[in-house]
Design the sequence.
């Protein structure tokens, strides 16, 4: 290759590399700008979704603190199925403990992990359970999610509402097929069993750790 050809090839390579670098810089700048422009809207939407969930779990009349700002972080917590930890929100009324909202995971769903949110009031009663993520069989096991339950008058998951271990002993927090207290749908026992057991574990954790959870500093990690 002659010197002229080598020079031309070098210029072409440099020009091509410069174009690619310029494209990368422009693309990155545009993506970054889009992220920062849309970030407030995304965060607002996430907060709205969290409040929607909390309103399903706990009556608004039960607390008067800024609930989403009153929380503690959990490290890995096997009792709740949280391999990487999670978060507990704390509801208070006039500064006094009112309820805890815990993240929990049932690892033994039919199609894998089932994520839950469970609210437990200061009296040790569950005020609400909601499935927040699952991969159960559509049309069969997905009745654990009230949005997909065909029984809109009394979704399956609402049977936990208002119950404590004083009313239903911990040993009976099982589906009726296993000799327990709770109903299930034939053909989808595994899904119901997983949610029932996870709800019992969340209730037990709240009862055991209530004082420590309410006493911890906001945003701290336990």
Sequence:
């Amino acid at each position: 290759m002659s010197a002229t050809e080598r020079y031309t090839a070098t210029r072409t390579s440099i020009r091509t590399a410069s174009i690619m670098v310029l494209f990368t810089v422009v693309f990155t700048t545009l993506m970054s700008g889009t992220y920062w422009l849309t970030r407030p809207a995304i965060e607002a939407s996430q907060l709205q979704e969290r409040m929607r969930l909390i309103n399903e779990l706990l009556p608004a009349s039960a607390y008067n603190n800024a609930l989403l700002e009153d929380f503690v972080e959990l490290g890995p917590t096997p009792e709740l199925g949280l391999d990487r930890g999670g978060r507990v929100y704390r509801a208070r009324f006039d500064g006094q403990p009112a309820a805890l909202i815990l993240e929990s995971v049932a690892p033994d769903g039919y199609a894998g992990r089932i994520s839950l949110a469970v609210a437990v009031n200061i009296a040790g009663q569950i005020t609400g359970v909601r499935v927040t993520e699952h991969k159960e069989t559509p049309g069969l096991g997905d009745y654990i999610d009230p949005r997909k339950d065909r029984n809109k008058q009394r979704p399956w998951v609402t049977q936990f509402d208002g119950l404590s271990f004083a009313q239903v002993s911990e040993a009976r927090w099982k589906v009726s097929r296993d000799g327990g207290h709770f109903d299930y749908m034939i053909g989808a026992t595994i899904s119901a069993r997983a949610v029932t057991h996870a709800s019992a574990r969340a209730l037990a954790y709240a009862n055991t750790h209530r004082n420590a959870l309410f006493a911890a500093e906001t945003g701290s990690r336990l």
